[in-house]
User: Which sequence fits this backbone?
């Protein structure tokens, strides 16, 4: 039974892993930290999985757990310190990236998001994912009115960063 | 420059992340150890509940007993012990209840609230401990300083007020150090969380 649950969970997670990667890329800025946060989110999702009754979509639930982990639970591990070889890789990747205009824009967008605070990062990501105010208010646990106010501020901030 | 209207377009065209994991890798991950702040809060809180009693094991039971008998403190110490025991059980019960309420499936705000609440129980527990230590300490000082046995050992013309002042100042310093250590641990664990919670609370 547990093995069945494990298979089901791993399959669903593998399919939807892009959600976690987006959250990781939003909240971290190097490969080691990205992978570390991905792992912590996966552990938290697996622990909470038996309680997931499907009252919301799997992806919605994943966002919630991912944000909770990135914002509140995640404590940076010491493993992030030794990252010199990875930085070299990243530089190389960044080089290749600028060949492509779209990737360059995406990179700029993530850089802009990095300068937002933790809550604004979540708002920006939910905005870009085209989530309704109802879903945003449910995910963050704030009223819809407040979600709108906060979202407008985040968008203005993002605009100012991207168009100085 | 990226115009804001186009951001969603840029975002949606995002391809699979370059660190994509296989099923095998994900399977391995779920058996790794968590480094969650809740885990640390649980470990540190249990230490804070247990540590005073571990320290008690290293004190000399017989000499404290003799001390209590000598200064007629046995009765009052028993009362303190019973009160203390009931209060601690109550704290542990509340802590456990709050801890159980922490669920990563809650909304972001609710999760933060529950974590802060759990930690608050420990905060009150520490304040209570410092409080009761102060009460018992002053009680012991009073009993000792007013006892005939103690007065006999003092040189003539000793100013009792000075003695009280020195004792209280030293005792307060010890309590302040304990409080400081606690604040430091509390701050380290919850600083980020409190900032984010305040940010969410704004305009609510």
Assistant:
């Amino acid at each position: 039974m547990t093995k069945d649950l494990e298979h089901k969970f791993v399959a669903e997670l593998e399919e939807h892993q892009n959600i976690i990667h987006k959250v990781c890329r939003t909240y971290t800025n190097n490969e080691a930290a990205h992978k570390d946060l991905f792992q912590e989110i996966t552990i938290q999702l697996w622990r909470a999985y038996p309680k997931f009754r499907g009252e919301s979509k799997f992806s919605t639930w994943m966002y919630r757990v991912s944000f909770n982990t990135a914002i509140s639970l995640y404590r940076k591990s010491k493993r992030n310190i030794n990252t010199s070889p990875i930085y070299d890789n990243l530089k190389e990747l960044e080089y290749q990236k600028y060949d492509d205009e779209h990737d360059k824009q995406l990179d700029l967008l993530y850089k802009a998001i990095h300068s937002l605070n933790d809550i604004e990062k979540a708002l920006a990501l939910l905005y870009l994912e085209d989530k309704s105010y109802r879903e945003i208010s449910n995910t963050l646990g704030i009223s819809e009115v407040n979600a709108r106010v906060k979202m407008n501020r985040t968008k203005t901030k993002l605009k100012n960063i991207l168009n100085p | 420059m990226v115009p804001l209207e186009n951001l969603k377009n840029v975002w949606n065209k995002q391809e699979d992340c370059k660190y994509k994991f296989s099923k095998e890798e994900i399977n391995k991950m779920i058996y790794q150890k968590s480094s969650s702040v809740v885990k640390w809060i649980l470990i540190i809180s249990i230490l804070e509940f247990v540590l005073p009693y571990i320290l008690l094991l290293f004190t000399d039971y017989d000499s404290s007993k003799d001390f209590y008998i000598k200064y007629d403190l046995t009765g009052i110490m028993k009362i303190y012990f019973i009160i203390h025991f009931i209060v601690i059980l109550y704290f542990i019960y509340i802590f456990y209840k709050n801890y159980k309420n922490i669920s990563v499936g809650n909304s972001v705000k609710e999760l933060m609230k529950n974590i802060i609440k759990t930690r608050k129980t420990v905060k009150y527990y520490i304040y209570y401990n410092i409080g009761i230590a102060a009460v018992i300490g002053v009680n012991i000082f009073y009993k000792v300083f007013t006892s005939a046995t103690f007065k006999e050992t003092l040189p003539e013309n000793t100013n009792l007020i000075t003695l009280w002042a020195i004792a209280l100042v030293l005792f307060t310093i010890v309590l302040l150090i304990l409080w400081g250590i606690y604040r430091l641990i509390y701050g380290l664990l919850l600083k980020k969380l409190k900032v984010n919670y305040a940010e969410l609370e704004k305009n609510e």
